[in-house]
Amino acid sequence: MTSHHFSRKFGLQFLTSLLPSKTQRRRKSAIRSASVEAFESRILLTTLTVNSAADNVIANDGLVTLREAIIAANTDGITDLGETGSGADEIVFRGDGTGGTTDFNDKTADTITLGGTELEIASDLIINGRGADLLTIDGNNSSRVFFANSAGDVTISGVTITGGNATNSGGGILNQAGTLTVRDSVVTGNVAGNDGGGLYSQLSGTLHVENSVIQNNNAGSGSGNVGGGIGASSGTLTISDSVVSGNTAYRTGGVFTYAQTTVINSLIDNNMATETVGGGFAGGINAGAGLTLINSTVSNNSSFGTVGGGGIRVFGGGHIENSTISGNMARFGAGIVHGSGDLTIVKSKITGNIADEDGGGIFSSSGTLHITKSKITDNSAAINGGGIFSETDLLLTKTKVLSNDAGNLGGGAFTTGTANISFTKTKFRKNIAGVNGGGLFFESSGNFDLFKFKAKKNSETQVVFT
Ligand SMILES: [Ca+2]
Ligand SMILES: [Ca+2]
Ligand SMILES: [Ca+2]
Predict the structure, then answer these.
(1) What's the gap in Å between 88 CA and the centre of ligand 2?
(2) Record's superkingdom (predicted)?
(3) SS3 letters for 111-164?
(4) Distance from the CA of 55 to the center of ligand 1, in angstroms?
(5) Can you give the pLDDT at residue 3?
(6) 266-290 pLDDT, tens per residue?
(7) Is residue 421 domain-resident?
(8) What CA–CA distance (Å, rounded) separates 202 from 216?
(9) How far is the CA of 135 from the centre of ligand 3 (A)?
(10) Residue 376 domain-assigned?
């Protein structure tokens, strides 16, 4: 599947237009290898055919609903079409068993509307939908859609999952303990009473989101609800070739995770945390156990809670490479809040983020922040540190800090606490501070080490050491 195919398939033209161009070039090979793996594993699977869009369990009527097929897969039972689940199974959608109102053979879209009860998967299973534009599974706003309650592997592909409404976590899908892959799918318009409006993974489960769109989900307005799009309490989370956009939650609109988390070739855009009196956490991604972000864009997310982090809030260190963090807004750390561990940022752009207080681009409070071959541009903070606000060790290598703005001190960067700084082959230009230190305001008690450091055309005084 090419990126163009992906775009047509979902009718979401913004996807390819907003993803980084490198993403598009790399996507072909990634998808090709994923398809080969899927094909190889599929050879061994038993096929169970769904031929009815109804949601019922009626034996011997010649119709196989998705619910009946999942039960057959779970129990290795036989369906009304005489197909018997055996070990790992694959569910496909074919036929016109409902007298013309639903036809899984044609090119008109079909919807399976659930009757008030989630679909529980309890064995190794692939649900192979006909495409997110052709098959929708709708929770009808009265139950979660899927509960992946298998210790093994579950893959859900080629479907739109919507209308999920869970009283606790995982409005669209709850993954528990096993490995869940959501591929070539759209998860939209789901609600969780607790965490993870679209998807939630818990009990050390593994969640892979591949080539999918997680959009306009909500984790409710209750105090402490986290992860409007995706939540993961532990285990592993990977998001690749995907879009997470327009999701909201009390805390962390996009992705709230304490899993080992990797985001690659993806767009995290326009997610929002609604809490303002308390923490709020991040707008885009709140990563509590480290974050790897590659070839991705985190843009236009917002959080105005007390702990900052418009785009990303990361604890436990991380690595950001070939990525753009832009247009995010927060009380502080509008682009990124770096809370602990060593964070490395390589070949990335942090631009146009806006903080109501400190740290327009980045707010760093613990661990080491090392930025290499990157650009910190056009960020603003109403108080200190337009580009960077750092209470911890700050290393800049071959990096440009340009045209950032602080209302008070340190237009380019502001350092305080015990922070040591080491700037190598780094330029600060055209940064502005309302009071002093247009380029750099260094008030920390640590050491500074400057090698081939240039500060030009910043507001006066360009560089201040106190
Ligand atoms: Ca039946
Ligand atoms: Ca089975
Ligand atoms: Ca159809």
Answers:
(1) 5
(2) Bacteria
(3) EEECCCCCEEECCCEEEECCCCCCEEEECCCCCCCEEECCCCEEEEECCEEECC
(4) 9
(5) 38
(6) 999 999 999 988 888 999 999 999 9
(7) no
(8) 22
(9) 8
(10) yes
Give the pLDDT score at 98: 55
Q: Residue 139 is part of which domain span?
A: 3-46+87-401
Centroid of ligand 1 to alpha carbon of 138 (angstroms): 19
Distance 174 CA to ligand 3 centre (A): 27
Q: How many residues does the chain have?
A: 466
Q: Percent of the chain at pLDDT above 90?
A: 84
DSSP secondary structure of 204-272 = T-EEEEES-EEES-B--SSTT-B-SSEEESSSEEEEES-EEES-EESB-SSEEE-SEEEEES-EEES-E
Ligand index nearest the alpha carbon of residue 51 = 1
| Ligand of minimum distance to the alpha carbon of 80 | 1
Is residue 409 a part of any domain in this protein?
no
Question: How many structural domains does the chain have?
Answer: 1
The answer to whether residue 219 sits within a structural domain is: yes
Intervals of the chain under pLDDT 70: 1-43, 96-101
> pLDDT tens-digit profile of 421-430?
999 999 999 9
pLDDT for the residue 101:
52
Per-position b or e across 332-371, b if 16+ CB within 10 A of its CB? bbbbbbbbbbbbbbbebbbbbbbbbbbbbbbbbbbbbbbb
Distance of CA 424 from the midpoint of ligand 2 (Å): 59
Q: What is the pLDDT of residue 30?
A: 42
